[in-house]
Amino acid sequence: MTSYKQLADSFQRQFGNGPSCTYFSPGRVNLIGEHTDYNGGSVLPVAIDIGTYFAVGPNNSGKINIFSEAFSKQLSISLGNIGKLKASGQWHDYVVGTLVEYANRGISGTGLDIYVTSDLPHGSGLSSSASFTVGIASLLNDLWDGDLKNIDIVHMAKSVENNFIGLQCGIMDQFAVTFGQVNNCIHLQCTTMEWELVPLNLCGHEIVIIDSKVPRKLSQSAYNIRRTECLSALSKLNSQFEFNYLCEASMQDIEACDELLASPVELKRAHHVVAEDVRVTSSVEALRSGELERFGQLMIASHNSLRDNFEVSCPELDFLVDTALNIPGVLGSRMTGAGFGGCTVSLVATEAVPGFISQICSAYAEKMPFQARALRCHSSDGAKKLN
After folding, report:
1. Which residues pair with 56 in a beta bridge?
2. 145 part of a folded domain
3. Which of 99, 204, 329, 330 is the most exposed place for a label (fewest CB within 10 A)?
C-alpha cells in the first residue's frame, strides 16, 4: 500500500511543491459472473485494497498536468481546448475522455497537477482502467464542486470506456470501484442496476489472486467479438421468443430454439451466459449461508464454462487453475475478468496460503515463459479522498 509520504514526496519531485490532497481508487476482482453484465445478468465483484493513488495540487496554468508513474510520462491538457480532443490510443485517453465528459456536462474548474501511481498490475483483469477513470472522475468532482452522485460517476466512467476509448464493456467494473465496501461483495443486476451488499464471511479462508502476466488488450482482442456473438445468439433466440437480453432465457429456451441449435458457436456462448447467471445467484446463496465448499464448486464450474463454452481462457490461466485445484486447502479457482490472459482468483484456507503461493508460482515458472505474481488482498471501500 502506498503511504501518504511516498505520494507527497513523488508529487514534490515532479511538480516542485507538495500536494493539497490525495485520493485512492480500488481495483476489483469479480468472484463470479463473467460476461453476464452486458447480457442483462448479474455479477458478484468485490473492491480490493490495491488500486490507484492520486496526489493533487492546484495550479494557475489553466491546464491539467498529469504524470503517470507507470508510464513515466507527463501530459498537459489545456482546459480551454477540451472540445477538440480525440482518443489517441495512449494511456492518457482515460483522462482526456473524462475531461470531455465533464465539459459535456458544463462542469469545469481550475488547473490541477496530478501524480498517479498504482499497485494494480496493468492489463491483468483487475480493472486498472476503471480504477484509474473512476479515480480521476471522483477527484475532479470533489475539487471542481461537480455535485455528481456516485451513480453519475459510474455512468461517466463507463461512457469514457464505451464512447471515447471504444471498448464496449458493461458497467460492473465502474460500479464495484465506486460502491465497494469493506467486508462485502456486491451483487449487481446490471440491467436494472438493483444491487445489494453480500457479507464476505470467508470463515478462515482468503481470496488469493494470481497474475499470469499474460497481457490483455481488450480493445484489440476478441472481447468485442464475443459481445457480437452474444447479440447474434439473442437474435436467433428471438426467432422463437421475445427477449431483451440473453440472461432472460433459460437453458430450456436455448435447447428449444432450432435456429440457435444450428449455430454451434452462438449456442456455446448462450450456454455459458445463461448458466453463469444462475451460478451468480447460487453463489450469493452459498456465501450468505456459509457454504464455502459449494461456492468453490461454482467457481470451478464457471472456469470450465469460460474455457469450453465462451472460449476466453488461455493455456496459462488453465494451468494456474488446474494447479491450484491440486493444492491442499483450495476450495475453488477460476479465471477472473474478461479473459485472454490476466488473473485467476482462488478460495484458499488462510493457513494454506503461504504454501499455495509458493507451490503455484514455482510450478508456473517451470512450465510457462512468465513469472506469476501472487496478490494477497482484501476487500476495500470504493473510491475516496484519503486526506
Report:
1. 21, 114
2. yes
3. 204
pLDDT digits (tens, 9 = 90+) for 231-244: 999 999 999 999 99
Cβ neighbours of residue 242 under 8 Å, at least 6 residues apart?
none
Residue of 37, 173, 211, 277 marked catalytic: 173
Q: How many domains does the chain have?
A: 1
Cell representation of residue 342: 490476466
pLDDT tens, residue by residue, 140-190: 999 999 999 999 999 999 999 999 998 777 789 999 999 999 999 999 999
**Secondary structure of the chain: what % helix, strand, coil (to 5)?**
45, 25, 30
Amino acid 46 reads V
Query: For 306-365, what is each residue's pLDDT tens digit?
Result: 999 999 999 999 999 999 999 999 999 999 988 889 999 999 999 999 999 999 999 999
For the CA atoms of 101, 102, 103, 108, the dihedral, rounded to the nearest 10 degrees, stands at -170
Domain that holds residue 191: 4-198+381-385
Q: Would 230 be classed as within a structural domain?
A: no
pLDDT at 25: 98
Separation between Cα atoms, residue 16 and residue 292, nearest integer Å: 51
For residue 90, what is its C-alpha cell? 495512449
CA angle 218, 279, 195 (to 5 degrees): 75
- Write the CATH number for 86: 3.30.230.10
Whole-model pTM above 0.85?
yes
Q: Which three cell numbers stand for residue 327?
A: 493444492
- Grid cell at residue 227: 459481445
Give the mean pLDDT of 368-385. Answer: 95
Scan for cell 507538495, then name that residue: 18
234 in any annotated domain? no
HSE toward the beta carbon, residue 369, CA cutoff 13 A: 2
Nearest alpha carbon to residue 164 among 79, 67, 92, 71 = 92
117 assigned to some structural domain: yes
Annotated catalytic, 173? yes
Query: Taking Cα atoms as reference points, which of 190, 189, 156 lies closest to residue 170?
Result: 190
- Does 218 score more than 80 pLDDT? no
- 143 vs 20, 139, 269, 357, CA distance in Å? 10, 6, 44, 41
Whether the Cβ atoms of residue 267 and residue 255 lie closer than 8 Å to each other: no
Question: What are the residues facing 205 on neighbouring strands?
Answer: 349
Cell representation of residue 48: 480490493
